[in-house]
Design goal:
By secondary structure, the protein is mainly α. It is built from five helices and no strands. This is DUF4345 domain-containing protein.
Length: about 130
């Protein structure tokens, strides 16, 4: 029972994180020149990845809520894809590309969140089925 509650909490966190990601990314992408200017030195591929990934965050969260087995793999995939984007972002920075420090923080937060969620969800899911 404890593990089912944990999965439910993780699901709610993933859904909320996804909704906030879609809202913030959508505001910059579709909010006009003022929103774009307020965002600073946006790295387009990171912004687009985060925006689109937000929908996947919600989907994985919903499926965690339903305790679907693939949701744990989906969380791990989101962590992996975020790590790849972070590495590409690092290459962008090392090559002299413009960026905002908050992008560094946001990528670190996303990678940490999805890595931890995937690990905890995997253990919780194993406990509910095993």
């Amino acid at each position: 029972m404890r593990h089912r509650r944990l999965l439910a909490v993780l699901a709610v966190l993933a859904i909320a994180f996804g909704a906030l990601t879609v809202l913030s990314g959508g505001r910059v992408l579709f909010g006009g020149t003022e929103a774009r200017a307020a965002a600073g030195q946006v790295v387009d591929f990171v912004l687009w990845f985060n925006f689109l990934a937000g929908f996947a965050y919600v989907a994985v969260g919903l499926e965690l809520w339903r305790r679907r087995r693939w949701a744990v793999r989906g969380a791990a995939l989101l962590a992996l894809l975020t790590a790849i984007i972070a590495a590409l972002f690092g290459l962008h920075v090392l090559s002299g590309g413009a960026y905002e420090m908050r992008t560094v923080g946001a990528l670190a937060l996303r990678l940490s969140f999805w890595s931890a969620l995937a690990l905890v969800a995997r253990r919780a899911a194993q406990s509910t089925t095993g």
